[in-house]
Amino acid sequence: MSCGSYRRPRPHRLPPRSRRRFSAPLSVEAALARAQAWWDSPGVQQIETGGDAVTWFVEAMKRHRLGRKRVLDTMLAATYRSAGIRSIFKLNVADFEVFGEFACLGPLIVASP
User: How far apart (Å, rounded) are the C-alpha atoms in residues 94 and 61?
Assistant: First the structure.
C-alpha cells in the first residue's frame, strides 16, 4: 500500500522563526487538558505501544535512515501498525509514504479556477 492524496504536497518546511505555526497557540496547561479530554473520551479507542511496535520503530528508523525529526511519526506508525491499523487520515500524507504499509487519505485539495 502507499499513501496518496489528490495533489502531492510540497515538502514540509518549518516556518521562519518570525512566524508562529498557530495564530493563537494553546498554553501548555490548556494543551494538556485537551489531550487528557481526548484520552478520556468514551468514543476514543486507546492503543498502547508494545514491544513489537518498539522493535519495528527501531528497524524502520534504521532502514529508512530517518533522523530525530521523524521519531514521533515513526513511533505513531509503529503503534498503528501493531494495533492493526492500516488506513489513516493524515493532513500530510507524505509523512507516512516512506513506510509503504499504510493507505493514507489526505484532505481534498480543490484547485481554484
Answer: 16
The grid cell for 38 is 481526548
Quote the pTM value: 0.67
Rounded distance between C-alpha atoms, residue 69 and residue 61, angstroms: 11
Structure letter (DSSP) for residue 35: H
DSSP type of residue 69: G
* Cα 2 from Cα 106, distance rounded (Å): 12
Classify the phi-psi angles of 73: left when phi > 0, otherwise alpha if psi is within -120 to 50, otherwise beta. Answer: alpha
Spell out the residues 6+ positions from residue 60 whose beta carbon is closer than 8 angstroms to its own.
66, 74, 77, 78, 99
What does the DSSP 8-state code read for residue 23?
Answer: S
pLDDT digits (tens, 9 = 90+) for 34-72: 999 999 999 888 888 899 999 999 999 999 999 999 999
The angle that helices 51-63 and 71-82 make with each other, rounded to 10 degrees, is: 130
